[in-house]
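Example record

One chain of 385 residues, shown exactly as stored in the release files.
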Amino acid sequence: TTPAALGGAAFDHGAAWLHTAADNPLAPIARAAGRTLLAASATRERRRFIGDRRAGDAECADYEATYADVVEMASARAASGPDISLAAAMAPLAGRPWSASIATWEGAIIAAADADDLSLRDWHNNRLDGDNLALPGGLGAFVRSVLGPLAGPVQTDAPVHRIRWQEAGGVAVESARGTLHARACLCTVSTGVLRAGRIAFTPALPARTEAAIGHLPMGLLSKLCLRARGEDRLGLPPHAGASQQVQNLGDPAMMFGFWPHGYDHAIGYIGGRAAWDLARAGAEATAAFARERLGAMFGARARRLFEGGAAIATTWGTDPLFLGAYCYPPPGHAEARQILAEPLADGRLAFAGEACHATRAGTVAGAWISGARAAAAMAAVCRNS
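Predicted structure tokens for this chain:
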């Protein structure tokens, strides 16, 4: 969106990056449409804090060394033995100063689920490698203006409440605007909506599919945009990131990005159980938490800069159309993504989206690839019947 409260600056409530840029299928589409793409590695500067002081060079080097050890150890464990949680795989490194910070980043922030809730195998399958690309006008604007027209006519404001998927000749989809009869149906709603039973399926879905949905709860990554109330930029360049060392696994932590594309706002990210707690408490509580965290790192200077300024919090956790940000499997259920993607009714009903991509879950590219594959398979079924 480009809300007036931000002076017209773009703010992506959801995804903001094209991850794994080298083979992201949306990158060439964006370039062909004339969109500017900025590589994170060329623009982002990261700063780490221990309490209210900036970490020194040796401490930052220890962070990088610990991160490398986490990836090596957890990846090796993911390849052998039964599935466990990411936190359990990291347990041998628990005494190192940055271990809880890395677990928070990889779990609550990246996967939207705390490390002790997240399947190690799913974490390993979905690790993001390579550079990330950002669009100055916002990824949401790109989806709406470039990807939207590729889909053809789209009917919005028609919430579906039932799918009859074994009708003679195809399927029947009941919505607030009436019933649509079609030869096939591709369902891309979140597993949060499916788990809540907001869409009824007649007949009931097979037990295998229902179990997969049950094993893919929604995680939550919330974003809070805070606009500065002055010219101070805290000595940070555009696209700078800042985070504070997490002392204990599970401690609430918020990571920040500052002055994206030169705009005068900062964006805080919080995920997992802490995000769900703040979502239930409301936007004001989220803003208060963010300002407290900024003050803990930058002191009174940051408190003055952001106190009373515009604050916009995302509402993915409470929005009935989503009920979370994106999904994750708990330990032992990494295969749920592939199971949910299995077509039903000889291919006339299929599920797709980030939940159904085994190696790019939680990303726009994963949703795009999953949907394209499912649609192509469905089209082939319809042509041959």
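Notes: The mean pLDDT is 95.
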